Amino acid sequence: MLGIARQKMLEQSLKKIRPAVSMLRNYSSAAKEMTVRTALNSALDEEMSADSKVFLMGEEITKGLLDKYGPERVLDTPITEAGFTGIAVGAAYYGLKPVVEFMTFNFSMQAIDHIINSAAKSNYMSAGQISVPIVFRGPNGAAAGVGAQHSQCYAAWYATCPGLKVLTPYNSEDARGLLKAAIRDPDPVVFLENELLYGESFPISEEVLDSSFCLPIGKAKAAEILEKDGIDAEVINLRSIRPLDRSTINDSVRKTSRLVTVEEAFPQHGVGAELCACVVEESFAYLDAPVERIAGADVPMPYAANLERMAVPQVEDIVRAAKRACYRSVP
């Protein structure tokens, strides 16, 4: 019932708050499209079909997989995150490949001891004798109208921990390719999905639809967008927060001489701060302007829709930052 109520609230509020980047997309109608939700489901289906060691455990298990693979490989659990996460980590110790699904990553706080102290550190503490091939996945960050306790971004939280890999897919290609890579990886992976993007459709190629398609972990994707207001911007979709593709970031700064970081999490000690440090350490002499950081407001997420929108980055915030970085007038 909790999942149904949450879905209804999301549907009612979705139009009020969208990730800023969604307003910038302009894709050809001729391309095949797939929703992020379908991309994730197809990746799970194909990996379960290819490897009998892969199984799912958690809340709101993806549609259709229980009927296909049965209750021994698809376990729809109660809201007991500490319990089922501990069970899944133990299964990974014995060579199985669990995919743990949280209704929201805010609920992972109940299981954080298993994620950090058991999953992330066991390979190091066993001198490489224990591998923990496990994926922790679910919606992360701001949703819509769910208040402060269900709206946090955990990218920086988990990215600080050695032993974890942290992935942040954006579009359908990312979701499909990175989830397959996460399941195949021998180490624990935190897979942070954006709840507001589940129903969004993105162009997808035949290559991406191939069952062998997989994206490398630790590599960012750079994309150029058309000139607008006389500014050429190179957009980097990080995809992976840990490991971080430092070379792509620094190559871009050395080409553009500017950096604007965008994240929806709190600004202090965030991913944007790490990107700034990365550039200052390796490409400071190439900067022609101060680094601009765009982040969520440094307050717990408000419940009211108008305040909620003010608490997360919007397109206009990014445009103003880009203009400041280029010494253009800002209204």
From TrEMBL:
Domain of life assignment: Eukaryota
Keywords annotated in UniProt: Oxidoreductase, Pyruvate, Thiamine pyrophosphate
Presence of keyword Oxidoreductase: yes
EC number(s) from the headed UniProt entry: 1.2.4.1
Cofactor(s) essential for the protein: thiamine diphosphate
Record-linked SUPFAM superfamilies: Thiamin diphosphate-binding fold (THDP-binding) (SSF52518), TK C-terminal domain-like (SSF52922)
Alphabetical list of InterPro entries matching this protein: PDHB_mito-type, THDP-binding, Transketo_C/PFOR_II, Transketolase-like_Pyr-bd, Transketolase_C
Entry-linked Gene3D superfamilies: 3.40.50.920, 3.40.50.970
Residue ranges constituting the Transketolase-like pyrimidine-binding domain according to the UniProt record: 34-200
Oxidoreductase as UniProt keyword: yes
Catalytic activity from the UniProt record: N(6)-[(R)-lipoyl]-L-lysyl-[protein] + pyruvate + H(+) = N(6)-[(R)-S(8)-acetyldihydrolipoyl]-L-lysyl-[protein] + CO2
Protein purpose: The pyruvate dehydrogenase complex catalyzes the overall conversion of pyruvate to acetyl-CoA and CO2.
The protein's name in its UniProt record: Pyruvate dehydrogenase E1 component subunit beta
Organism the protein comes from: Hibiscus sabdariffa (roselle)
